[in-house]
Amino acid sequence: MKKVIIIGSPGAGKSTFARKLRDRTGLPLYYLDLYYHRADRTTVPREEFDAKLAEIMQTDSWILDGNFNRTMEWRMQNCDTVVFMDYPLEVCLSGIRQRVGVKREEMPWVEEELDEKFRQFVEDFPKTTLPVIYELIEQYREGREIHILHSREEAERFLEGL
After folding, report:
1. Percent of the chain, pLDDT > 90?
2. Which pTM value belongs to this model?
3. C-alpha torsion angle, residues 128, 95, 138, 79 (rounded to 10)
């Protein structure tokens, strides 16, 4: 395990898991949200984001935290380990509600309220994004460690087993 992607719905706890994985393994951690979002709530141009992602993926080891569907296949092609947090919708919705008003190291701003468009994205995630993730996992299964976690308890057991 040297090149790890952590994927799953917003609110699943990917960033928290990524920090714990970093602390256990010593692998460098990169939050994709920090490379995509600016503090003024705008986003960087696609080319800038892709160039930074390419630069990171050319290094010997990394943990990439974030879903970012557009680049998921590219990241899956370049990783040796996939950690997919496939949690129930209620867990993810609770997760996004709990972070409102909380300063997080993986975001350049504090979410002051639950954005309705974002909440709807999370509600639609099981129908729109999960099937795509499972297709990619099947397509790139060979030569990679695949860990599909279904609860926070499973995630903790995974980390304890390292």
Report:
1. 99
2. 0.95
3. 120
